[in-house]
Write a structure and sequence with these properties.
about 45% helix, mainly alpha
């Protein structure tokens, strides 16, 4: 069985993809902290609707499932969620005279938050893998 077919792992993969993309956007903000006219960006929070879209479902419908190895996957099924997130302008609390709206302290707080969320998702992934390994062990082995 493919781990991507298990819903919890599919959701964790989407969450980790979102957090990875957010970290890239925040790093881009820090890199442009001195660029005149640059406005910081951020990703919208990952809500339920965004998670469903990242998994390939549309409003009011769910994606088709392949229940046997011989089934073909639908053409419009997505293979990853990296392109599902779009950065939006999120100006900081201050703007310099040259028009730069990146506040390094705020970006560092965002980076720390993203890192903590990423670590939590990785921890949950590892715990889920341990549960699967324990369930796959033959009886009597401890």
């Amino acid at each position: 069985m493919n781990l991507a077919e298990i819903p919890i792992f599919s959701m964790l993969r989407g969450r980790l993809g979102y957090l990875s993309e957010r970290q890239k956007v925040i790093a881009q903000n820090v890199a442009n902290a001195e660029t005149p006219g640059y406005v910081s960006q951020d990703l919208k929070p990952l809500g339920f609707q965004a998670q469903m879209q990242a998994q390939g479902a549309t409003a009011g419908a769910t994606r088709m499932a392949t229940t046997q190895a011989g089934h073909m996957a639908p053409r419009n099924e997505r293979r990853g969620a990296a392109g599902a997130y779009k950065a939006v302008a999120a100006p900081g609390s201050e703007t310099t005279l040259n028009g730069n709206a990146v506040v390094l302290e705020e970006e560092m707080m965002k980076m720390s938050e993203a890192r903590m969320n990423y670590d939590a998702a990785i921890g949950f992934y590892q715990k889920s893998m341990n549960i699967l390994r324990m369930a796959a062990r033959p009886p009597g082995r401890g």
